[in-house]
Amino acid sequence: QVQLVESGGGLVQPGGSLRLSCAASGLIFDSFAMSWYRQVPGKERELVAAIPIRTVGGGTNYADFVKGRFTISRDNVNSMVYLQMNNLKPEDTAVYSCYAQHYRNGMNYWGKGTLVTVSS
Questions:
Q1: 101 to each of 13, 18, 22, 30, 61, how far by Cα in Å?
Q2: Is 81 helix (H, G, I), strand (E, B) or coil?
Q3: 3 Cβ neighbours under 8 A, 6+ residues apart
């Protein structure tokens, strides 16, 4: 059974930092491109950052609204993907979810998400 479990969300003040983690199990992790999405109630889910199966030579992708502030990374040995979020803004408040998509057949999975609240 495939599971993606996010952690690291919480309440942080504007300008602060958080590091989200996503632990994957039940899949061949290094065959899946990984992404972080976020969703605010009443709005569509939006891509935050994506990382390919291998990162040699780059290949990460960021939404314009997080460029220079967020960094996505992965640990293929421990089946983890991370999102380091710096200089957080109130508009970053959302549920952040982990997403895995097989690099060849498109099979995909979602985590349940972790809530990030940026407020003073």
A1: 33, 25, 14, 11, 15
A2: strand
A3: 23, 24, 25, 26, 111
Do 79 and 64 contact (CB within 8 A), yes or no?
A: no
Place of tokens 């998400």: 113
C-beta atoms surrounding 47 within 10 Å: 14
pLDDT computed for residue 106 by the predictor: 86
Say how far apart CA 49 and CA 92 lie, in whole Å: 13
Sheet holding 80-85, edge to edge: 3-7, 18-25, 80-85, 70-75
Q: Are 32 and 24 in contact (CB under 8 A)?
A: yes
Q: What CA dihedral angle connects 26, 81, 48 and 19, to 10 degrees? A: 130
Structure confidence by residue, pLDDT tens digits, 65-96 = 999 999 999 999 999 999 999 999 999 999 99
The pair phi, psi for residue 27, each rounded to 5°, is -140, 165
Q: Which one-letter DSSP state was computed for residue 53?
A: S
Amino acid identity at 1: Q
